[in-house]
Structures
1.
Amino acid sequence: MRLVVRALSELCITAGALVVLFVAYLLYWTGVQADSASAAQIDTLQRAWADAPLVTAPARVPAPYVTGKGIAVMYVPRLGRDWKWPVLEGTGPDILKQGLGHYGRTAVLGGTGNFAVAGHRRTHGDPFKDFPLLRPGDAVVLTDGTTWFTYRIDRGPYRTVPSDTAVVDPVPRKSGFRGPGRYLTLTTCDPEWGSSHRLIVWAHLDATRPVTDGRPQALDS
Amino acid sequence: MYGWIWRHLPGNAWVRALISIVLVLAVVYVLFQYVFPWAEPLLPFNDVTVDGQ
């Protein structure tokens, strides 16, 4: 009898410790890993940009995106002055551990169509934790090393279901955009710790400027 | 279970305590490095894309 009670209590203690450790892993350790992975990705990008000969933007033919490799750095002033995440090509779990992911089948950065990006709401650095704070008019600024792209949010956060792939269409349904244009879509999960829904914001390309002209104003306002 | 492990560790109490700590650290390492990354996708925090699934 005593043996059974002892074994059972040891089992309970072990299970409890496991759960505590797993929560620590999710809340803390994935963030630590995402911070170092995203910093390394931004580093790699900036080193590649520094090495590349500086050509004026229109003359440069953009290299095709390679899955898992960084393509741009995103800044969203509303989410924090220091908020800065790399955008990687692809939306697989291993890619989203290191930063934001660009939907492979959507447009290139600054191109006609829809540049769609997904990011974690919680865990792995919480990049889109404050997603519901985004409002129409907010700036989403990206750079690919030669050009600053300033997008302005038009609609959102819009709540939908995971199967609603039309939100990343070239002219997204429900976005209010009517004709073809240079759009951007951000997606994350909703509720914060769940996966039953998705939150979406849509933006349009408002301005571009060569990196040689300095940071866009939207970043410092 | 823990009592059984303790009784089968060699050395005096100090050595046993030291080995226990190393064992615990090893278990935590394996959990963080292999088990938790495997278990994580089974939870709903990772689904942030619209994918038609």
Note: Residues 163 and 171 of chain A are 17 Å apart (CA to CA).
2.
Amino acid sequence: MHNLWDRILRSNKEEESLSTFLQRIPVFSHLNQKDFHYIKTLIHTRTYDPGEIIFEQGDPGSGMYVIRSGHVTLFTRDSHNRREDLSVLGPGDFFGETTIATPAARVISASCNENCELLGLFRSDLFAVAERRPEIANRILLGLTSVISERLQNAILELRKHSISEESE
Amino acid sequence: MNITRSQFLFFYLVMTAALASGLAIFSSASTIALTLRSAAAGIFVPLILALATAFVLDPVVSRLEKYHIPRSRSTLAIFFLILTLLWFSGSWLVTYTQQMWISLVQDFPRYSSGLIKYVKEAQISWQEQFPFLIQYDLTEKVPTPKSALKLGSLLILVPIFAFFFIRDGANIRRNLIALAPNRYFEMAHDLSYLISRQTSRFVRGRIIEASIIGMCITAGLSLTDIRYAPLLGLFAGITNLVPYVGPLVGMIPGLTIALIDLGFGPQFWWIVILYVLISQVILDNFILIPILISRYANLHPLLVIVAIIMGGKIYGVLGMIIGVPILSACKIAFIQIRHYRRAFSLPDTGTQLPR
């Protein structure tokens, strides 16, 4: 009898930690506590083997991934198909967010360094939320916009620095 | 080539064993397939009807969800509302349709014999003109009405299935997609969303179109002295689900009854105009189809005929009606996949992205 009540009243530990984990991700920083309950039905949890390719340059991109555990290497391939590593991301980092709003091909490739658990948020799910719960979609998009504009700012500064150093040479 | 007796015996035994095991595998496989088919036979029709119901009701539930009403609660509320509506209108509706049905069944021999009489007259005049047609007797093949539907089980199964499709449809799709391997997951996810959205829009559009046509026919027939206007409207609405052939079949009973009861007169011509010009040409082709049905779900007439024949072969009258929408859904899926491949110009479509 005790066991039965335990099973009914038990709150799922794993799910709870999922929402606390998501709260730390900048994209979801505008969401309320209650929204995370809903977000959990949108997020796809995928597990990857070491060395497994998550996506390749030129693949149709449809969303972003958040790293829950493990490390992911982002890389490009040159015309001779040689791999050139760009950066290594760890737990809490996210990538692929540029393709979430509009369909576009991936411009970089990503692979897992070890056993990874990734959380995927995809365009079609975001569209579905926008129809059913527009206010939640709004908060996600607000977070996404701030992240993307921050990265754009950085990229512009980076480019300017680059062009100034080229001019001085 | 020398073959010893033992070698021959060995060869013989191996061949026998191979044949026997092959037969055993074949028979067990066909038995399993047969069992699966007979197990699934009763489920197909309620499943399709429940899916259609779910497609129609889904926007209403989603609208309620916008006001922070949980999905299962809003689904339950809508089902409860429909049930109460049926409950209160039931006593009136049941007796009304029952009386109409009983009198139609009584009248049916009169109408069918009248139809046969007309066909016979036409046949005699054809045969006078074209003597080689004598060997064909059309009147032998007049079908008898058969209630193919097991209405009772449908009335229980369809609401239950529809309830779970509306409440958990997205989750069912999600869990199925989650089975895809990592490398193809994104594509499968995207495509399933696009296909299910287009298909539900198409099915919803077709059902709304059919009900509007049915209501229009009912209203138009009510202006005349014809009997059974609601039943004729219902029939015209249902057959309207099948393009090209459906509207033609849908107007046969109406025109027959009009011809036999009212004779050639202004009312008969009004009914012809109602069926052909008002409901088909003006309402359906000029107003409803452009608004409700997306252009690329259109099927070639040949495909429509193939779908009707194949559907009829498998599931009888109901198969004829749902065969065409199923084929349209397949076409939508096909076109979505092609669009998707073109949008991203996947490697095997020829053009590659600069790397």
Note: Helices of chain A lie at 2-9, 13-23, 35-39, 123-132, 134-168.
3.
Amino acid sequence: MEPLLSLQIDDPHRTYQPGDELECECQVDAIDASDIQAIETSVLWYTEGKGDEDLGVHYFERRVPNDAEDGDLRPMHRFATVLPNSPLSYSGGIVKVRWCARVRLFLRRGKELFFEQPFHLGAVAPIRI
Amino acid sequence: MSHRFDDLAPMFPDQNPFSTWAVRPGAIVFRFVNGSSRESVLTKLEENGWWGEVVGPHGSGKSTLLATLAPGFEERGRTVKRYVVKLGEKQLAINTLELRKWTPNTQVVVEGFEKLGRRNRKMIETVCKRQQAGLLVTCHESLGFPALLQTSISLELGISLVRDLLPPDCDFISDDDVRRSYERHRHNLRELLFEMYDLYEKRRPRDG
Amino acid sequence: MLFLLGAVALTTVIVSQILNPTPEVLRPGFGFWLMVVVMASFVLLGGGGVMLTAFQAGASIERRSALVRQAAGIDLISEALPSSQQHPNIPRDADLTNSPGVTLVFRLPTAQMPVWRLTLATLVFLLLTAVTSVVCVIVVNHHLAQTPDWFLTLFAVPLVIANFWAVKYFFTELGVHTRHGPTCFEISHHPLRPNSECEIFVSQAGRFSLPAFTVALVCEEEATYSQGTDIRTETRVVYETEVLRQEDIRIEAGTPFEAHSRLSIPGGVMHSFQSGHNAVRWKFVVRGTPVSGPSMARTFPVLVYPDNQNGQE
């Protein structure tokens, strides 16, 4: 059975302005604690469109079993970050900028799982070609 | 900043199915024709002592084929050393220390081999022979290596690729659009997909 | 290699000094300290490279990117980066605001026009003119001496036509670069922000007439695709608004044409953005189409920052 990976963003509308605090909760289930090697949580932007994709990480945290009580990384973990001034979310013609929160689970024997939640930063109007 | 985006999944409503993450070599799986398959191509290469060439015009899927073959090399215990020769490059950016690391298990893969200078090509061939490494190259015209596959594009292939990339309920890009684009960019699948990006962007329904 | 060389040499230098101290070499300016500084820099540069290679192998893309961002937090590195930490991925404006204006606050530098076409035209023009002249002199001499060389005469005809074309092309290119005098562009604010106003001043020197002289504020996206053996860069204009238009103007030598204008940057537009393969660029474009001869287009890049309501400034 596949482990369950959940990630929740506090604002149901998922729209933020620069300087706002983004709060997230992540949790892992349906897996043995000893099978987890590390969990990475991050808040990042990436580009999409006609060019090669670029990526920038705004917030990053890596936790290994030694960082948790009883060495168990499964219980709910909260993290928060103040969002930056730029780059803002953008839906352009050939360049798009996306923001998301992401959790990545590293299992023993090199297996890896990830889950992400998109959100919108700023109020840039989409481009209509 | 350059990253591989093997794990980015579509999430946004204004996502374009012809974005680079969806159409770059590796994201699209090579469509084998005439009964060939990834395994048969790899077996043929192995029988040729891991030497071969993939010949085909610009944008006909050579890079996509290499990306499709890549996991197969690992399964057969070969370590791939991949080099891409960009336009204007006459020499492979590679140092002698790296060359010495090539072993009989190394599969050297050079994309755009014909762009290299004659001496540089000869040098790579000599090193591969000396160290018994495999050499797989892509080129527009045959360079005399054992022929592995000839890539080409057909209208049917273009239509089938576009259909697969489009969301299931999309009705604003038709086979006729692909046909017209195919005529304009004859034999160049990459240009066809770039044009489909623009067409999708122009016709997609807007939010609100 | 650099790291190993630096580490071994630095250790050797220091250990030899500890085991066999010679106080006079420790004096400032002596080779010992120079050696230490050079070797230490080798260790730092090489070590950085080793760490980067190590991190790139077997780490998630987020982790690698976070490490790069952490490194950018170091003052020396962050100063050298193209964007500031307060406005990530927006180019710095140092090059755009280091020249004060005469009428308004800043004088914007122009984007360089590529001169390779003029260079090529000059070379072709010179070479072809030399060859054509020699051939023509020989042909004329033969004809004057009543011993016409018809093969050479026939050969001279296409050469003269090609030379005529080369002369025309050369002078057209030369005109593009020299005919229109310098354009001076000044601005009251920089960087620009959505929902704000700014004043511009433009001055055009030269000696020509223009049916229309315009200034436009343009935003364009740029995306570079480099998969396989392909590298292609595509740009697309996504916003353009005319901020100044003057019709039927005549510019005389020594009396440049000058004009002021006010413009509003609309709300909801994307800020300037720069990443590895993608960009959003803003610029003013000054255009003029003369009655005859090549048209003029000069570009003045500007930066647009986000409209921050509650961001950290």
Note: Residues 50-58 of chain C have pLDDT under 50 and may be disordered.
